[in-house]
Amino acid sequence: MNKYKHFNLEHNNEVSVVTLTDTELLDRLLTNELQDELVDFVESEKPTQMIINFQEVRRCSTEIINALLRSRKRLSAHDGRLKLCQMRAEIREVFRLLNLEGTVFKIYKTVSDAVQDF
Predict the structure, then answer these.
(1) Which residue of 9, 34, 64, 89 pairs with 60 in a disulfide if CB–CB is 3.0 to 4.6 A?
(2) For the chain, how are helix, strand and coil distributed in percent, rounded to 5?
(3) CB-based burial of residue 113 (10 Å sphere; 0-12 exposed, 13-18 middle, 19+ buried)?
(4) Tens of each residue's pLDDT in the chain, 118 residues
(5) Cβ distance 69 to 99 under 8 Å?
(6) Residue 78 has what DSSP assignment?
(7) Is the CB of residue 92 less than 8 Å from the CB of residue 58?
(8) pTM (predicted TM-score)
(9) Under a CB-based contact definition with an 8 Å cutoff, are residues 37 and 45 in contact?
């Protein structure tokens, strides 16, 4: 059984694939819960290779970016790497406009593309 409320977790060899399950990540309480779950996962499991899959996400607030930045920082503390994938064009455009795509986050079309690049 999945112990996380806001994402499903799978392992693809050495890669932890976190698939977000909420389609609307706009509510502050929900984004705070998701952020806490991501940080808890990173702190307890200490993955070295992690992918966050946005395939189900239709809309999200900028608070999600903060959650991703915090998770990335904690991953980096133990030499972990974070990649993102399967973002809708509108969400990916926000990352591009904030100059986060390619500089802070690598964003891939599919999970397998992200896995292959590790």
Answers:
(1) 64
(2) 40, 25, 35
(3) middle
(4) 568 999 999 998 899 999 999 999 999 999 999 999 999 999 999 999 999 999 999 999 989 999 999 999 999 998 999 999 999 999 999 999 999 999 999 999 999 999 999 9
(5) no
(6) T
(7) no
(8) 0.92
(9) no
